[in-house]
Design goal:
seven-stranded mixed β-sheet; globular; single chain; alpha/beta; Rossmann fold
Amino acid sequence: MSNNVGLTDYSPYRLDRSKHSAQNIISKCIGTNKRVLDLGCNRGFLGMLADSSNDFYGVDNSEACIRIARSFYKEASVMDLNHVEALPWDITFDAIVFADVLEHLVDPYLVLKFYFERYLEEGGEVFISLPNIANWRMRLRLMLGRFGYSETGTLDKTHLHFYTYKTARNLVEATGLEVVLEMAGSGSKILGRIIERVPRLRQLLAWNILIIARRR
């Protein structure tokens, strides 16, 4: 969704409409008639996938991505989330999304806490997606002594943090949020179906850790 690198460059990430992708799952969980803040919105992928009754507001540090996102979002603005600052809109939101962005930030705890405390409506929800470093592919690579970085994916070269389900929950709960649901994202139809049938395998099979949280 957003790699938060380069103020003018496009992100190498692409829209994924597959049923089990993190993007698709989050867009469906948002529901309808919501005002949504998408932090690290890339080209506005969630706005493309979610129900059209929602009003999306997005920020990203890529000017090129924001120009495209404005076609799908009510408002979109260039911001670098590493410089925590007030939004350009004096409103609050029913949903705040951090989709594959926190792992790119110097201080994800500070960013998560700052924005939900100031901009989340009472009763609103926070949607978080993080790469799962403990999935089977990463475990196999480590067994073989391989830890090479790449342009996208779990070992994206711009990732500053790596998460398991346990450490992702710890991050979210440390900010004062309550985890109400944990899910799994997968770019594989087969693995997605397995996770649906046996949810406890998500720690091993999920590509993305998905969390929905609310204020305590």
